[in-house]
Write a structure and sequence with these properties.
By secondary structure, the chain is an alpha+beta fold. The protein has three domains: 99 residues, Beta Barrel (OB fold (Dihydrolipoamide Acetyltransferase, E2P)); 207 residues, BirA Bifunctional Protein, domain 2; 126 residues, 2-Layer Sandwich (Gyrase A, domain 2). The protein is built from 17 helices and 22 strands. Strands 6-9-10-22-21-20-17-11 form an eight-stranded mixed beta sheet, sandwiched between helices. Strands 1-2-3-5-4 form a five-stranded mixed β-barrel. Strand 2 and strand 3 form a beta hairpin. Helix 4 packs across helix 6, helix 10 crosses helix 12 and helix 14 packs antiparallel against helix 15.
C-alpha cells in the first residue's frame, strides 16, 4: 500500500493554501487529521506544521484517487496533486486559514500507513501528560505543540538578530568543565582517560563568559544548555536553556537598557506586541515590603501593609507577641468575604507550606467584623485596621504574624495564589518590573557563615564596599532581575573585576585562599591580567517562551523534556549501562541496601 515519493515535489505547505491559489495546481504532503465519507464524496483534512487544508475526492471526477482514499485512515502520510477551488457556498470555515478553499484531488499517494495513535491528536485537555511524554513524537504533531515550537524558534531568531545588531559575538563555552560550588548540585561525568576524575556539566557559563571579557571580546552572547541536579517543578528542568549575555565597560544601567531592548525585540517578533519603555524599577526592599516576594506580579493589587505598630498593644496575643519579636502584615482580598470555611482552611494549609503557623482573617460584613479573632480587638483598633487595609463590606482581610521572612513569603505567596484563583491575572497582560539592590549576602545559621544571594562573583554597590569590613549583611549587590507576571525571566549583575575584592568576597563566604585557588584559580589568575569592568544577564529561554505561549509548564515548550523525576518517558533515560562501560570508567556500583 505504501508508495515512494518519486519525482513529486511539494509546492505549498498545507496551511498556506489560500484563495489566491484558486485554479492553480498544487502538490501537498502531510498527515491525515481526519477522513469523512459523505456517501461517495470523501473529504480528508491534511495537516502539516503550517496548518490544515481540506481535500475533496469525487469518485466520478477522479476514480483512481478516490479508490486510494478509501484506504486512508488517521495519521497516514499522504502526497496529493490537485487543483485549488473555492469551497461551496455555506461551507466556508472562517476559523481556518485555509477555510475559504479546498483541493480537488487528482492524484493521491499513501507514503506511509499508521497505527491508530494512543490519543487523538486534535484534542488536548483530557490527555494524560505521561501518555503524551511517552509518545512525544506524536504529541509534537499537535497544532498547539507545533505552534509552541515555532514561537520558540522566533524568539531565538529575534535574540540572534538583536545581539548581532548590537555588536555581540556568539561564542560557545565548554560543556565538560570543572565542578564548582554554584548553589545547586552538579551533574558529574566520569573521565575514562583520567580515572577517578570527573567533569561537571555547567550550571551556567558564568566563569567562562567572565574570562571572555578578560580576553577582550567585549560583548558575548550564547543560547546555551545548562544543567542543575535539583528538585523539579512546573517551571524547572534538569537541563534548560539560557540566553546568556556578557559585556565589558558597562554599568548596570547599560546592561538593563540593552536587555530591555532585546526583550522588546523578542515580543515584537514573536507575538507582534510593542512593549512600553522603560520598564519600571523597584528595589528589593520595596518589593518585599509591598508584595512579600522579590518576583512580584503587578497585574493585580492586594498589596501587603505593615501593621506592626497598629497592633502592638492589642489584646490578641499572637499579634502582640509578633510585634515585639517580628512583624505583623495583612492585605485585603477585595470581595472575598464570600469564601467558605473550607476555603479558609485550604488557604491556611497553603501558607503553612511557607512556614506560617496559621492564617488570621476577618470578613467585613454589614454588621462589621466576622472573625474568630474579632473579640480581641477594640472598636478603635478595628477602625484603624480597616482604614489601613482599605476595608469595605464584602472584603476579606488576611494577616500574618511571625518573623519577617516567614510573614513576607507566606503572605506574598498567598497573594499570588489568590490572584490566580480569582482570575485577576490574565495571561495576555504582560507586566514587567526590574528588581534591583538585592542583598549581597545572607547569613546561613546552619553553616555559621554568609552565603551569596546571587553568586560569589557579584559586585557590591560601590557605596557599600566599606560595609564588607564592618557589616557585610547590610551590603547591597549590583544585581538585577527582570520579572514578568510574577516569574523571574532573567537575572544578572555587574561582576567583581578586582582580584583583591574577589578574594575578600571568598573570605566572607568561608572560602579560604587555598580552596579558592583550587576551585577558581584560573579566574583569580585571569583577574590579575587586566580584567575590565564587566557584567551581564541570563534569561531563561524556556520560562520566557512558556509565558509567551500562555503554557502552564515549561515541558510544553521543550521538544523532549524530562518529568518531575528527571526521566524521559520516551527514551527511558536515565538507564542502566553495560558493566564493561563501568569497568572502563573505574566505577563499581554499590549494592542496594534493600
Amino acid at each position: 500500500m505504501n508508495q515512494a515519493l518519486g519525482d513529486w515535489k511539494r509546492t505549498h505547505y498545507c496551511g498556506q493554501v489560500t484563495a489566491l491559489d484558486v485554479d492553480n495546481e498544487v502538490c501537498l504532503m502531510g498527515w491525515v487529521q481526519r477522513r469523512r465519507d459523505h456517501g461517495g464524496l470523501i473529504f480528508i483534512d491534511l495537516r502539516d506544521r503550517e496548518g490544515i487544508v481540506q481535500l475533496a475526492l469525487d469518485p466520478e471526477r477522479d476514480p483512481e484517487a478516490h479508490k486510494v482514499a478509501e484506504l486512508v485512515r488517521g495519521e497516514f502520510v499522504l502526497a496529493i496533486r490537485g487543483v485549488v477551488s473555492p469551497r461551496p457556498a455555506g461551507t466556508v470555515n472562517p476559523k481556518m486559514k485555509t477555510g475559504e478553499v479546498e483541493v480537488e484531488v487528482r492524484e493521491l499517494r499513501i507514503l506511509n500507513a499508521a497505527k491508530t495513535p494512543p490519543f487523538m491528536l486534535d484534542e488536548y485537555s483530557d490527555i494524560n501528560e505521561n501518555l503524551r511524554l511517552k509518545h512525544r513524537y506524536l504529541d509534537l504533531r499537535r497544532a498547539q505543540m507545533q505552534s509552541n515550537m515555532i514561537l520558540r524558534h522566533r524568539v531565538t531568531r529575534a535574540v540572534r538578530n538583536y545581539t548581532d545588531a548590537h555588536g555581540f559575538l556568539e561564542i560557545e563555552t565548554p560543556v565538560l568543565t570543572k565542578s564548582t560550588p554554584e548553589g545547586a548540585r552538579d551533574y558529574l561525568v566520569p573521565s575514562r582517560v583520567n580515572p577517578g576524575s570527573f567533569y561537571a556539566l555547567p550550571q551556567s557559563p558564568q566563569l567562562f563568559k567572565q574570562l571572555l571579557m578578560v580576553a577582550g571580546f567585549d560583548r558575548y552572547c550564547q543560547i546555551v544548555k545548562c544543567f542543575r541536579d535539583e528538585d523539579l517543578r512546573a517551571d524547572r528542568q534538569p537541563e534548560f536553556t539560557q540566553i546568556d549575555c556578557e559585556m565589558s565597560f558597562v554599568n548596570r544601567d547599560d546592561v538593563m537598557t540593552l536587555m530591555e531592548g532585546m526583550i522588546a525585540a523578542v515580543f515584537k517578533d514573536a507575538i507582534d506586541m510593542t512593549l512600553s519603555s522603560p520598564v519600571p524599577r523597584m528595589t528589593y526592599a520595596e518589593a518585599i515590603d509591598r508584595f512579600g516576594v522579590d518576583n512580584p506580579d503587578l497585574r493585580f493589587g492586594m498589596e501587603l501593609k505593615e501593621l506592626t505598630e497598629l497592633v502592638a498593644g492589642c489584646g490578641f496575643k499572637v499579634f502582640a507577641d509578633a510585634a515585639k519579636k517580628g512583624i505583623v502584615k495583612g492585605f485585603n482580598a477585595k470581595g472575598c468575604a464570600k469564601f467558605s470555611r473550607k476555603d479558609m482552611d485550604d488557604l491556611t494549609e497553603f501558607v503553612k507550606i511557607y512556614g506560617a503557623k496559621g492564617l488570621a482573617y476577618v470578613k467585613i460584613t454589614e454588621d462589621g467584623w466576622q472573625s474568630p479573632i474579632g473579640k480581641f480587638f477594640t472598636d478603635e483598633e478595628k477602625i484603624a485596621l480597616n482604614e489601613a487595609l482599605g476595608a469595605e463590606v464584602g472584603d476579606l482581610l488576611m494577616f500574618g504574624a511571625d518573623a519577617s521572612g516567614i510573614v513576607n513569603e507566606s503572605l506574598g505567596r498567598l497573594r499570588g495564589h489568590l490572584g490566580a484563583k480569582l482570575g485577576l491575572a490574565r495571561k495576555d497582560d504582560y507586566r514587567f518590573v526590574w528588581i534591583t539592590d538585592f542583598p549581597l549576602l545572607e547569613w546561613d545559621a546552619d553553616a555559621g557563615r554568609h552565603v551569596a544571594v546571587h553568586h560569589p562573583f557579584t559586585a557590591p554597590l560601590e557605596e557599600d564596599v566599606a560595609l564588607l569590613e564592618t557589616d557585610p549583611g547590610k551590603a547591597r549587590a549590583q544585581a538585577y532581575d527582570l520579572v514578568l507576571n510574577g516569574s523571574e525571566i532573567g537575572g544578572g549583575s555587574i561582576r567583581i573585576h578586582d582580584q583583591a575584592l574577589q578574594q575578600k568576597m571568598f573570605s566572607l563566604l568561608g572560602i579560604q585562599e587555598e580552596e579558592a585557588r583550587e576551585k577558581f584559580g584560573f579566574l583569580l589568575e585571569a583577574l590579575e591580567y587586566g580584567a575590565p569592568p564587566h557584567g551581564g544577564l541570563a534569561f531563561g529561554l524556556d520560562r520566557l517562551v512558556m509565558l509567551l505561549t500562555g503554557s502552564d509548564s515549561i515541558r510544553d515548550v521543550i521538544a523532549f523534556p524530562k518529568t518531575q523525576k528527571a526521566t524521559c518517558m520516551m527514551s527511558e533515560a536515565p538507564g542502566a549501562v553495560d558493566s564493561l562501560q563501568l569497568r572502563d570508567l573505574g566505577i563499581r556500583l554499590a549494592k542496594s541496601s534493600s
